[in-house]
Amino acid sequence: MSDNNILLKVRDLKVKFPIMGGIFQKKVAEVRAVDGVSFDVMKAETLGIVGESGCGKSTLGKALINVLRLTAPGVEISGEVLLEKDGSYIDLLKLNKKEMSIYRPDIQMIFQDPFSSLNPRMLVGEIIQEPLDINTKLSKAEKRDKVAWLLEKVGLSAEQSSRYPHEFSGGQRQRIGIARALATNPRLIIADEPVSALDVSIQAQVINLMMDLQEEFNLSFMFIAHDLSVVEHISSRIGVMYLGNLVEIGSSDNVNDSPKHPYTQSLLSAVPIPDPKSKENRKRIVLQGDVPSPLAKPSGCGFRTRCFIVKPECANGVPPLDEKAKNHFAACPYTE
């Protein structure tokens, strides 16, 4: 992949949350929510990040937009998050709040819960206009026109700007969240499970809207979800996370048709086949045990306690992402 096409480079990103205890509230343990993740986000692509609950997907998204230090005091973040800007790369993790404000318009986020991510005391027009107030010098009339234009872009009407969030359905609220994210003309939008709280029929509408907007505005998306079928539909590449580590990454077709890591294989084997009479032969892989606690991760490969091809050597070290096929990487030296 050419560096000219890379919008965001993530290198060895680690996020640790301290656990405080005792009379003096000293650090007694830590949660390694993201444990050495590296990947690239290309320009005008959708990278899907998939994994079960608690694997660190949402923490990864929040680390990329550099808000964790503001919302989680004591969090330890290391590594690099390099955003391309005017031909060079800026490490977002080294920026303070004021310095980050310069790059904030380029990278925005759509949150999981459309019911709690919108301020109930603000009108919809005010919610969408707020990023314009902070990041632009537009006149009041220009801001009003852009809010109306954004609402129409996401399938709502300009007249609805004078309503409050509680007057909208879940799908409409998520459209408002998308309009707010688009307000600053971003190049990358991180969508943190944006459809998981919506009905299936509404999910399809929101996903199709995001795909249309990507094509129109040449956007890059990082789409975080636990539903493989949704991720496959919208993503050009897919990364699979388990217990804070990226265990596989490749094109959507390769990951779905020829998964390399045993965890990815087990995830895909659990996806239901719509037609019960289908001749498709899919061997169900049933994993043993529960996901280990992030407080006590297994040594070596985090998946080894549940893996069906585990070797004694798996406890010796975290396996690197090796290229198993062209641009298809998996963190398992023993996979077929």
State the gist of this model.
By secondary structure, this protein is of the alpha/beta class.
Report on this model:
It is a single chain. The chain has 336 residues and is of the alpha/beta class. It contains ten helices and twelve strands. It has helices at 57-64, 68-71, 97-100, 124-135, 140-153, 170-182, 200-217, 228-234, 252-257, 262-269; strands at 6-21, 26-42, 46-50, 76-85, 88-91, 107-110, 188-192, 220-225, 237-242, 245-251, 322-325, 328-330. The protein has an eight-stranded mixed beta sheet with strand order 6-7-8-3-9-10-12-11, with helices on both faces. The protein has a four-stranded antiparallel beta sheet with strand order 2-1-4-5. β4 (76-85) and β5 form a beta hairpin. α4 crosses α5, α4 packs parallel to α6 and α5 crosses α6. The longest helix is centred in the middle third of the chain and has 18 residues, at 200-217.
